[in-house]
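Good morning,

Attaching, inline, the backbone tokens for the sequence recovery test we're adding to the shared suite. The designed sequence is right after.
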């Protein structure tokens, strides 16, 4: 048996403990699929992350902080304490806190615009604004150059122009915000006095306005002028009305006298003719004359009958002479047109006089009301003059205090601006070429894949249930391997040790 397998036996001592390249390469090739999978997955993830990574531009600026009056505390009582000056670390720490203030970041975002800084940001306006403030604070880096008074600022953004503009705005807003922070002082005595004076002036003005509204006063001088002019106009109008009323009364009196002499009715038509009595007497006379002629033809003139008829004729003629020859048969009367016309004129004049008297009474009432208003304004002018004088005095005092306070404030601002202790050493600058995480992410994926593949190999070797190499057999069984036989059953060489239940010869 030994001679038959002599060419294929590999002698190995149980005391042989050295590693060989074969011991490393054999498991490597045996577990190559798992290792390749463990290596490829991180590489793919790193490559995908590198593909979606954006180019980042970093704008940088530097500020120089000088010592100024802001960092000097002067006690109110100089005799009880000395001036306190902050050291460099305290000054720089204070500047850093101001630079990192969320309020400053909010002002920059409001100035530049959330959509300009971060165009890929979505959501409501409030959400975009809050997220932009948070992202801006995350992208901003503030640091102090060691052993110096220089502050270095850096801002990252996907757009170089936006990064430069935003950092420049940040520097300007920082200088303004810093000045505002240091200018916030406690209320001083002049400020308190000015506020008190302003409140008193407002109360005095309110009293004047309420007084005017309560009594219907706008401009008392102008109202006096208007009222007096109106009273004068009403007096002139009243005088004219009285004169016209007297004229109308005189005309009405004349018309009354004339109407008293005129009849109300006059004869319009009258028709005359022979009266009935005259006609009767004439007829009777004619009969008597006929009888007389007849009787004279038969009797003598001295005959009594003839004399009797002659006497009747004489009496009848005498009666005819007494009766009018003609009498009115028809007579019509009507209204006297002259009387009627004059009466109409009287009515018109009387009605006009009545209207003028009513207007005169209204004018008298208006004059009385206006005179009462004038007397009221005269009585109120004293009280209003007192209120107005008080308001004018307070207004003059307030203007003086406000002017002094404003002059003091402007002088303080000018002094602070003249001694501003922030200098821009390096304006906002950014490299033309941005930085990208594509290569770092890809390299990290490769390194992670290699580490993961090595870990998979170590894990499989530690937990393997098969014998890949001779050393695996010796380490697992604790027995020496005398020989390794090549297995050609599937056209490949397999190292195989003895069965675990076989004992070595």
């Amino acid at each position: 048996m030994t001679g038959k397998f002599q060419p294929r036996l590999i002698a190995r001592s149980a005391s042989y403990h050295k590693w060989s390249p074969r011991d490393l390469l054999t498991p490597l090739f045996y577990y190559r699929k798992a290792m390749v999978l463990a290596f490829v997955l991180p590489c793919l993830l790193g490559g995908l992350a590198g593909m979606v990574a954006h180019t980042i531009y970093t704008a940088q600026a530097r500020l120089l902080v000088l010592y100024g009056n802001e960092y000097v505390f002067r006690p109110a009582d100089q005799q009880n304490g000395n001036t306190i000056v902050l050291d460099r670390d305290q000054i720089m720490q204070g500047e850093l806190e101001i630079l990192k203030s969320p309020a400053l970041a909010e002002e920059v975002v409001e100035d530049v615009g959330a959509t300009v800084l971060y165009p890929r940001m979505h959501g409501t306006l409030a959400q975009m604004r809050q997220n932009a403030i948070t992202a801006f604070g995350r992208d901003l880096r503030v640091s102090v150059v060691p052993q110096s008074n220089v502050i270095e600022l850096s801002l990252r953004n996907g757009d170089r122009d936006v990064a430069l503009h935003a950092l420049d705005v940040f520097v300007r807003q920082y200088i303004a915000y810093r000045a505002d922070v240091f200018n916030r002082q406690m209320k001083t005595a002049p400020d308190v006095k000015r506020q008190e004076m302003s409140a008193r002036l407002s109360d005095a003005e309110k009293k004047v306005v309420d007084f005017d509204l309560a009594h219907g006063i706008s401009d008392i001088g102008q109202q006096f002028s208007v009222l007096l002019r109106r009273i004068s106009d009403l007096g002139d109008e009243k005088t004219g009305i009285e004169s016209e009323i007297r004229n109308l009364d005189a005309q009405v009196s004349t018309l009354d006298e004339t109407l008293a002499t005129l009849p109300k009715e006059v004869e319009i038509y009258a028709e005359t003719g022979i009266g009935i009595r005259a006609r009767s007497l004439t007829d009777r006379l004619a009969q008597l004359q006929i009888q007389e002629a007849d009787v004279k033809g038969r009797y003598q003139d001295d005959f009594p009958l003839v004399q009797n008829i002659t006497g009747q004729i004489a009496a009848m003629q005498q009666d005819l002479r007494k009766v009018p020859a003609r009498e009115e048969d028809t007579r019509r009367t009507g209204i006297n047109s002259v009387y009627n016309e004059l009466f109409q004129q009287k009515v018109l004049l009387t009605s006009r006089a009545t209207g003028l008297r009513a207007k005169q009474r209204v004018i008298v009432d208006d004059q009385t009301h206006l005179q009462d208003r004038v007397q009221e304004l005269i009585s109120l002018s004293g009280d209003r003059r007192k209120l107005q004088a008080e308001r004018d005095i307070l207004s003059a005092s307030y203007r003086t205090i406000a002017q002094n306070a404003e002059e003091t404030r402007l002088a303080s601002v000018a002094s602070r601006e003249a001694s501003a202790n922030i200098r821009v050493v390096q304006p906002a600058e950014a490299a033309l070429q941005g930085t990208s995480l594509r290569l770092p992410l890809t390299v990290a994926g490769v390194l992670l894949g290699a580490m993961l593949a090595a870990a998979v190999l170590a894990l499989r070797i530690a937990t393997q249930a098969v014998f890949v190499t001779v050393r695996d057999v010796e380490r697992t069984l604790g027995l020496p391997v005398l020989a390794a036989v090549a297995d050609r059953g599937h056209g490949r060489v397999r190292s195989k040790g003895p069965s675990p239940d076989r004992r070595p010869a």
